[in-house]
Design goal:
The chain has about 70 residues and is mostly helical. It has a two-stranded antiparallel sheet. It has four helices and two strands.
């Protein structure tokens, strides 16, 4: 496992918002799969980012999705 990924996943106090790459690490997906989830409206970024802009996600929402069996 990449040291950056391991360090991020083991944070005592994770940040409130995370990037697409960090969201992928947290959910166990690749960043490309996060793009697909966004396109299928299964995952919604914060605000209204530009199509080609940086996407941020609420960490607590990602935690809820991780625990949701149907999702």
């Amino acid at each position: 496992m990449n040291k950056d990924v391991e360090r991020f996943l083991n944070l005592q106090n994770p940040p409130g918002r995370v990037t697409k790459e960090q969201a992928a690490w947290k959910l166990g997906f690749t960043p490309d799969e996060i793009t697909v989830l966004i396109a299928k409206n299964l995952l919604k970024p914060l605000g209204h980012p530009a199509h080609n802009g940086q996407k941020y996600f609420l960490n607590s929402t990602l935690e809820d999705l991780r625990r949701d069996e149907k999702w």
